[in-house]
Amino acid sequence: xxxxxxxxxxxxxxxxxxxxxxxxxxxxxxxxxxxxxxxxxxxxxxxxxxxxxxxxxxxxxxxxxxxxxxxxxxxxxxxxxxxxxxxxxxxxxxxxxxxxxxxxxxxxxxxxxxxxxxxxxxxxxxxxxxxxxxxxxxxxxxxxxxxxxxxxxxxxxxxxxxxxxxxxxxxxxxxxxxxxxxxxxxxxxxxxxxxxxxxxxxxxxxxxxxxxxxxxxxxxxxxxxxxxxxxxxxxxxxxxxxxxxxxxxxxxxxxxxxxxxxxxxxxxxxxxxxxxxxxxxxxxxxxxxxxxxxxxxxxxxxxxxxxxxxxxxxxxxxxxxxxxxxxxxxxxxxxxxxxxxxxxxxxxxxxxxxxxxxxxxxxxxxxxxxxxxxxxxxxxxxxxxxxxxxxxxxxxxxxxxxxxxxxxxxxxxxxxxxxxxxxxxxxxxxxxxxxxxxxxxxxxxxxxxxxxxxxxxxxxxxxxxxxxxxxxxxxxxxxxxxxxxxxxxxxxxxxxxxxxxxxxxxxxxxxxxxxxxxxxxxxxxxxxxxxxxxxxxxxxxxxxxxxxxxxxxxxxxxxxxxxxxxxxxxxxxxxxxxxxxxxxxxxxxxxxxxxxxxxxxxxxxxxxxxxxxxxxxxxxxxxxxxxx
Length: 628
Fold this sequence. Notes:
By secondary structure, the protein is an alpha/beta fold. Among the domains are: about 250 residues, Rossmann fold, CATH 3.40.50.300; about 180 residues, P-loop containing nucleotide triphosphate hydrolases (Rossmann fold). The chain contains 19 helices and 14 strands. The strands form two sheets. It has an eight-stranded mixed sheet with strand order 1-8-2-7-6-3-5-4, sandwiched between helices. Its EC number is 3.6.4.13.
């Protein structure tokens, strides 16, 4: 679904146990020098908390599976597809051309023809009016395919990159499903344990909140209520919402399974289940929770699973819980970066990064409406670089694992509101971030996984916009370079000689400094310069668990955190870090190196931005840009 120039349509964003093996759940290990304890539910490495983690996993294993064969299941309807004559009589050649031009493949059961306009479906008039208000002109490819499939009552698996319109792709069929099953929904008494008819499970609270915004925008037109349930927020407030009643629950796995274990929520009445970003949830270790959640839902439900990639773990989950499903794939399903992103990778030494950052920001922020995200590896570096950026006279905000949820929302709202600003962030804190007008991404540190690199640079160039991503890479990152080169070549990006040399020389490589004579121009009118390009494709997520919680979250202990990486994606520096957050590499660094002086700033230095005690004004998701 295309949007007008004033915004885009789609998205996108924890912890868990490792994947089950022989029925036993194994908690992940952490190195002792790993970095961040989150003050809002952080993971503590003490033996006591490790034992709590194992106990929490035992609680999940011990959650009984209902004997559905002995339960009387109330009747509900699934099929609501009423195709227009144009869709019914569309020539096969036209369908084939649409599939080919959008790189769509369809397999499995229950094939249906795509819908190419909103008028080809019987959509409630109030929703059509809302679509017109948002200036959507036609469905996106994933919406064209999944709407007729889901409205026909089919189970389906949709593989499409972030930003493709998946959210509205499943929200619209869910709303129509609930609207046509009002008699079923009202058949449950108020004395019964409350629960949803439609359930969306998402990996992070940021993503859950974005999904809620779409559900609000269109559900409010039909009087269909929703609530969002996630870790990091007081349980009592969420339980009060549950008791007031809602048709749709949008939840992260940890908090949802907590409420199910406590008999605060029953999933037995759910008839429409969506697993969003399934690959990320599995990669973060949520498989035990997801399997238990699905077990609690009636087996004749309608199920939709969406994922950016199609690895064997996601295939196994689909095979175990979804039968006779329609498989819709948009693109290759492999890890890839959008070719619209101009990717510039510079090989350097650690001590060179700050000076290079100053130069890049001085040039790109001289342009009009330049909005950028700067990614750093640790919260200590985020704080340090945000102060450096502010010292250059730029409006800069910081977000990382020590920020409370209210402060995060305020920071993101400020970043969205100001057309010319910089956000300095860690990987975890930026999950689910979806702002349409970000032009630049700067990776000060290369992430722990190449999947996270693709996710980071996908923060720019949402929908069909363009963007530029700068990445600093050192000898310590040599093991990631072969995969990075694959990503660059797959997106038709230039691979520098210094990057190729790093694959040969490995961690022994030492940069001779940035070659100033080989840097491309920042002039957007120069064909060799930096366009604003891109969006992301599939990616697996890291295990750092800022965005989710187990039952002990409110006590400050993240007791169900599975760790599959060697260290946190977000946190304080390890024991080998210097005071300024720079990690020493094998060759050390030049203590006598003098950074170039910052450029002279004529404007008044901005004051340190501090969030208010209470959120003021519109919420962080008040605009429609990019959330559909």
